[in-house]
């Protein structure tokens, strides 16, 4: 396979029934398109040491999906670590991420690519914005509450940081500070690094198989600690432009 322009990174944990349908949707959304529109792509799945048949399902799919690559954690390590390891292994200059539960729609990836094509070069992250959430009322309320607090503390001008579908430059991502749960703060971290971010409305779907791996209380407790840490990182950051100095012509220098 040629070096892909785009790598679709999907972290999964115990999603055996969602693997095949989601891979098929990614292929349908991207295969056959022009290279700049995602047509030259790979799919990188990272199995976070699932305890069900997720890894076996991925192994079977490799025989029929040449774009598919499969990585597996030796121990369960969490979503942020899975995303980072997937990005490190990816060969594309740009990364699209999707949650492995099937609630993100791969058909939105070309929409993010189109937004990138008409944006300035300093926009390094295009974040999905679930304008019509298909979750339970309690989860929607918790997300709204968390987004309001995060926006007030970090001022990242992002209505929905929890959406799993994103498009970002690989090099810019790998230059960010890494910590557990960092995937929830990518807009703020990208802005801290001096880049711009854009939110793009995307679809959101009901989960049709498997169960959610999170509960609202766990997210709230972790989120409070993380918010304080990210706010500290932002306060302590400094972005400075760097210019290389060319030699000045003199008696001993000729151009």
Concise structural overview:
It holds the Pfam family Glycos_transf_2. The chain is α/β, with parallel strands linked by helices.
Which class of secondary structure composition applies to the elements?
A: alpha/beta
Classify the beta-strand content into a percent band.
15-25%
Q: Architecture in CATH?
A: Alpha-Beta Complex
The number of distinct helices, counting runs of at least 4 residues, comes to 8
Q: Give the averaged pLDDT, no decimals.
A: 87
Main β-sheet: number of strands, strand sense, barrel status? 7 strands, mixed
H/E series: EHEHEHEHEHEHHEH
The strands making up the biggest β-sheet line up spatially as: 3-2-1-4-6-5-7
EC number: 2.4.-.-
Domain Glycosyltransferase 2-like: 7-173
Protein name: Glycosyltransferase family 2 protein
Organism: Luteimonas notoginsengisoli
Describe the model.
- Keywords: Cell membrane, Glycosyltransferase, Lipopolysaccharide biosynthesis, Membrane, Transferase, Transmembrane, Transmembrane helix.
- InterPro entries: Glyco_trans_2-like, Glycosyltransferase_2, Nucleotide-diphossugar_trans.
- The chain is of the alpha/beta class and 255 residues long.
- It has one domain: Alpha-Beta Complex (Spore Coat Polysaccharide Biosynthesis Protein SpsA, Chain A).
- Helix content is 36%, strand content 16%.
- The protein contains 8 helices and 7 strands; from the N terminus they run βαβαβαβαβαβααβα.
- The protein has helices spanning 19-30, 54-62, 79-89, 109-117, 137-154, 170-174, 186-192, 216-235, and strands at 6-12, 41-47, 68-72, 94-97, 123-130, 166-169, 196-202.
- A 7-stranded mixed sheet has the order 3-2-1-4-6-5-7, sandwiched between helices.
- β2, α2 (54-62) and β3 (68-72) form a beta-alpha-beta unit.
- The longest helix is centred in the last third of the chain and has 20 residues, at 216-235.
- The protein is globular, with a radius of gyration of 20 Å.
């Amino acid at each position: 396979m040629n070096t892909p322009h785009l790598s679709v990174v999907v972290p999964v944990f115990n999603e055996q029934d969602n693997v095949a349908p989601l891979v098929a949707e990614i292929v349908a959304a991207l295969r056959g398109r022009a290279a700049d529109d995602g047509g030259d792509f790979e799919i990188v799945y990272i199995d976070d040491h699932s305890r069900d048949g997720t890894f076996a399902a991925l192994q079977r799919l490799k025989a029929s999906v040449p774009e598919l690559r499969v990585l597996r954690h030796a121990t369960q390590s969490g979503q942020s670590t899975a995303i980072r390891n997937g990005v490190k292994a990816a060969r594309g200059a740009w990364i699209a991420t999707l949650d492995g539960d099937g609630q993100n729609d791969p058909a939105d990836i070309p929409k993010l690519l189109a937004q990138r094509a008409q944006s300035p070069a300093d926009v390094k992250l295009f974040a999905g914005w679930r304008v019509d959430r298909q979750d339970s009322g309690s989860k929607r309320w918790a997300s709204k509450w968390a987004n309001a607090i995060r926006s007030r503390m970090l001022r990242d001008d992002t209505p929905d940081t929890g959406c799993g579908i994103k498009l970002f430059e690989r090099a810019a991502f790998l230059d960010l500070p890494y910590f557990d749960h960092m995937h929830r703060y990518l807009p703020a971290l990208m802005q801290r690094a001096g880049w711009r971010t854009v939110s793009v409305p995307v679809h959101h779907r009901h989960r049709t198989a498997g169960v959610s791996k999170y509960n609202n209380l766990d997210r709230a407790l972790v989120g409070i600690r993380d918010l304080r840490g990210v706010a500290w990182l932002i306060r302590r950051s400094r972005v400075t432009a760097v210019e290389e100095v060319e030699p000045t012509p003199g008696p001993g220098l000729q151009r």
